[in-house]
Every structure is written in structure tokens, then in C-alpha cells.
Design a protein that fits this description.
- The longest helix has 18 residues, at 30-47.
- By secondary structure, the chain is of the alpha/beta class.
- Helices cover 24% and strands 19% of the residues.
- The strands form 4 sheets. A 7-stranded mixed beta sheet has the order 1-4-7-12-15-17-18, covered by helices on one side. Strands 2-5-8-13-16 form a 5-stranded parallel beta sheet. Strands 3-6-11-14 form a 4-stranded parallel beta sheet, with no helix packed on it.
- A hairpin with a 4-residue loop joins strand 17 and strand 18 (209-213).
């Protein structure tokens, strides 16, 4: 995620700059229509690529993301060539993205099928984070006042989403605008995340709430020794705990 913030090269008075700052802006401005159409076509090329080398998938993703970093020289051996991209994000088609320019992914990020990203504002996902199938990231919002919202003629806004390193976002999760997820946390399947998640915690539910802390030597506050691991359970365990708790409360 060494690329600069998308705001860095924009006219501060432009509609696009206003949108990235989280201010009200008009999403049907010609500039945004052009950007969304570009991204739609780029996503179509990625989704329709079929059985192609790893190099081509990385190239197609960078086209969506408007990442102009040069690819390394191609090697004659296909496996050796693919190994040059082992730190690039792995993204499984199909994927649907609004703009594409406002996404920053760390190394070794994995995104499973049917991911939906509304990147009105910046979305960052830290290195080694795993994203399950059917996950949605919504950085865009709309005014609650219908008179102001006014269909396609009214303004909208947004807030950045930041996902830390070493997180696991399980299937069918929705993460809403303005949320920050701390390093090493897990979001249980089917959760709707409406507020920040502290580092090294498991959250689940709608709205998501803290289920328990993750004990790991990666946490500087943990008493575990380096390399010691205790949380080998899958996310189905805290999800079952949550279901039992909700049942007992009714």
C-alpha cells in the first residue's frame, strides 16, 4: 500500500476531491460517470479472463485499481514467472467495484468470490488479511433527509474504511462507511459492522459486537511467548457462542 492517497494529485475544489474528503458531492457528475464506466469495463475484463497466467490476472487487477507500477520482466518458465507475483493480492472473480481508484491492498491479501466494493472514499486492506465470499465494503453514504437526498439529482457522501493487517473477514460480511478494523481481528460470518473493531478481537452479529479477545503472540499486550499459539479454533466457534447467547436472552 505504498501508493499515495488518491487525494494527493487532485484539485482540492473538484467534485472528486470533495467526495474523497467525505463531503457532500454529486455522484452523477460527468467525471464520476466516466470513472464508473471505466471501472465497469475493467471489472468485466477481469471477470471474463478465464484460465490465464498469474501475470495476466495481476495486470487486469492493476487496470481496475489504476495502479501503473511496472510489472517485472517476464520469465520463460511459467512457474518462475508466477512466483514473481506471490506477494500481490489474490482476487477471485467475479468482483464488482464502483471506482477502483480508491482501493489500496497490502501484500498477500486474499479476496474470495463476489466481493462488492463501493469505493467512494479510500478503502485500505492490510497485508495477509483474508476476505471471504460475498463480502461488501460500502464507503458511500446518503443523506437521511429525502428532500436533500433527491434521487440521482441530490448529493451523497462517504467515509473511509480501513482494515488492519492479519484480519479474517468471513463470508457474507457487510462493512459500512467509516469503520476501522484493528490488526488481527476476525469478523464472524454474516455480520454487519457499523463501528470500529479493536485489534485482536472477534466480533459477530447484526450489528456486530465483541464476542471475545484473540490470544496471540502478535499482540504486544498478550502474555503469550513469541511463536506460541492458542486460538486454533475456527470462526464457527464464537459464532455458535453468539447464537447460544442470543437464544438464552430470549
Amino acid at each position: 500500500m505504498s501508493r499515495p492517497h488518491p487525494l494527493s494529485h487532485l484539485d482540492p475544489n473538484s467534485e472528486k476531491a470533495r467526495s474523497l474528503r467525505g463531503e457532500l458531492y454529486h455522484s452523477f457528475h460527468p467525471e464520476f460517470l466516466k470513472d464508473r464506466r471505466r471501472c465497469e469495463l475493467a471489472c468485466n475484463r477481469f471477470n471474463d479472463a478465464g484460465d490465464v497466467p498469474r501475470r495476466r490476472l495481476v495486470e487486469l487487477w492493476r487496470d481496475i485499481n489504476e495502479d501503473t507500477t511496472p510489472l517485472p520482466p517476464q520469465l520463460p518458465d511459467p512457474d518462475e514467472d508466477a512466483a514473481q507475483f506471490e506477494d500481490d493480492p489474490w482476487i477471485l472473480a467475479p468482483i464488482k467495484i464502483d471506482n477502483g481508484q480508491n482501493i489500496r491492498l497490502g501484500e498477500n491479501v486474499f479476496i474470495n468470490v463476489n466481493c462488492m466494493i463501493v469505493d467512494t472514499c479510500l478503502l485500505t486492506i492490510g497485508s495477509r488479511t483474508l476476505v471471504g465470499p460475498n463480502v461488501s465494503f460500502y464507503t458511500g453514504t446518503h443523506p437521511l433527509d429525502p428532500a436533500l437526498r433527491n434521487g440521482t439529482r441530490g448529493p451523497e457522501a462517504g467515509k473511509e474504511i480501513h482494515i488492519g493487517e492479519d484480519c479474517w473477514i468471513c463470508g457474507n460480511v457487510i462493512i459500512l462507511a467509516g469503520v476501522n478494523v484493528g490488526k488481527g481481528s476476525t469478523i464472524g460470518a454474516g455480520s454487519v459492522v457499523t463501528k470500529d473493531v479493536p485489534a485482536f478481537h472477534v466480533v459477530a452479529g447484526n450489528p456486530a459486537r465483541i464476542i471475545r479477545k484473540v490470544e496471540t503472540s502478535m499482540d504486544p499486550e498478550s502474555k503469550l511467548q513469541d511463536g506460541q499459539r492458542v486460538d486454533t479454533q475456527g470462526a464457527e466457534v464464537p459464532m455458535t457462542q453468539l447464537a447460544n447467547e442470543l437464544e438464552n436472552n430470549h
